[in-house]
Amino acid sequence: MKCEVGTKIPTTPELAAIYSVGFGTVDRAMTALKETGAIKLQSKGQLGTLLLEKNTAALWDIIDHGPLVGSFPIPNTIEFEGLATGLIQMFMEKRVNCSLTFKNGASLRVKQLLDGQCDFVVMSHLSAVRSCREHPHLQPVAILNSNSYYIDLIILHRKDAVPDMKSWRIGLDPTSYDHIALSDDIFSDNEKINIHYGHIPYLIADGVIDAAVWHSTQLVPAALIDVLAVRRVEKLETGSEKSMAAAIVVNGERKEIVALFHELCDVGRIGGIQQEVISRKRSPAF
């Protein structure tokens, strides 16, 4: 899977040495790959053998890698439900078995990727830029449309909060690159208190914090509706706007994963399915 179309593949002796097998085993494997249509080769004599075509989905199935595993934010919003459904359905149509694990906090999902616990991570474009800057061997393989990650953002706060927003204590989840950037963007001079994102409504109601940036389509507990109020986020800084688009990041050193996404990932199809879920024309399924 690591060889690119149009390039020379390793020779039989080289493949035998790489995989510690005999020449006959290599020849039988190459014959099977050709007969199943997974690859198409062209011999150039002393110049070697060129890879003319490859069926990435068939190769993925043949190597028995197991399911493609992605680390995804907890799907507690309609955008995330649609995105997860789109990913699973798109790969299913490509005949690639894909499964998702769920964890909030882009930094925690990146750690899973670095530790080899997953094959790809889903995060915002903003988080992808930061992750790839901090870990140069990471690589974005897909950027989806604007608002594919967040449709809209709001400020969740107490109804009885003082009018002067500059005095508010702001809740910030330090595991979320987006929450850090957005909180600093909107509340640059406010006191920040580290919290877990999922605890925000309760911490506001309990008076631990006064407000926090919140995902507009994420529900808040019904028991707190008499205590909480919302304000729209009017405008974001240019860099923070990247938080609204979804991105997929992989370990660039895993060439087979990079090839799989470059050749099979259809962001248009993912986005189309996501919109069907958002408009209630399709039920979430992931």
UniProtKB/TrEMBL annotation:
<dbReference type="Pfam" id="PF14502">
    <property type="entry name" value="HTH_41"/>
</dbReference>
<dbReference type="InterPro" id="IPR032791">
    <property type="entry name" value="YhfZ_C"/>
</dbReference>
<feature type="domain" description="Uncharacterised protein YhfZ C-terminal">
    <location>
        <begin position="57"/>
        <end position="285"/>
    </location>
</feature>
<dbReference type="InterPro" id="IPR041444">
    <property type="entry name" value="HTH_41"/>
</dbReference>
<dbReference type="Pfam" id="PF14503">
    <property type="entry name" value="YhfZ_C"/>
</dbReference>
<protein>
    <submittedName>
        <fullName>Transcriptional regulator</fullName>
    </submittedName>
</protein>
<feature type="domain" description="YhfZ helix-turn-helix">
    <location>
        <begin position="5"/>
        <end position="51"/>
    </location>
</feature>
